[in-house]
Predict the 3D structure of the following.
Amino acid sequence: MPEGPEIWRTADSLTNALKNRPIEDLYFAFDELKNYEAKLKGQFVENVEARGKALLTFFDNNKVMYSHNQLYGKWMVSDSGEQPDTNRSLRVAIHNGEKSAYLYSASEIEMLDREEVNQHSYIKKLGPDVLHPDTTYEDILRQYQSDEFKNRKLTTLLLDQGFVSGIGNYLRSEIMFYAKVNPRKKLRAYSDQQKASLAEATFKLTTRSYKTGGITNDPEIVEALKRENAPRSDYRHFVYNRTDDHCHKCGSIIEEEKNGGRKIYFCSNCQLET
């Protein structure tokens, strides 16, 4: 499933395609949304934002479309009226004079009034989203310092959208590595300095991944490996999905462990001694 950086890039793509252009036609596959086809025609999309792993499409008539892709949903953008070649099931289509946006295979789509957004059952449970313009480093640090989470194991906590929203499996391993922390501990076991390092890593790597299209590794390491014609899989991440490869920082072998049915990746030399 895409993580926060990927969801926000999708939001940016939809905003660029739809913002401030009158809607010429719409399509909703679900019967309970059909009446909005006429209501939204002629309206404008103001912007599209991510909330955790969901998207909010804001219309200028106070309506907001909530959509969550789950495992299989996918947005695609094309020139107006040109439908992508796909076998996926079309759920939503929004057309203006220049672009069309298509949502395929998603199962969770709702229309809300703007004042209902923050009380939506999914959204109200979310922790701060690093990539939201209003979120600060201090917001993320407070989550790590909060007594509410202190008895949780870090590896499971980082996947809890109520802690920090938008983090998934690759960011989890990368954050723990960048902060140089032992991934096997509960949050209460880390020092104040380690919690500050975790907050910094969360903020920095999520933002870096968003800006680079999914790369979390240090820019200088990335550029050095590119000069050697290394494949993207070698330079994209510090540790994620790099089992048995050498750590970019110390040269030790990257290891993996199963945790709650999902793998974490780490460097024992850089992390387990902390």
In short: Strands lie at 25-28, 45-51, 54-59, 63-68, 74-79, 90-95, 99-104, 108-113, 254-259, 262-267. Residues 192-212 form the longest helix (21 residues). The mean pLDDT is 95.
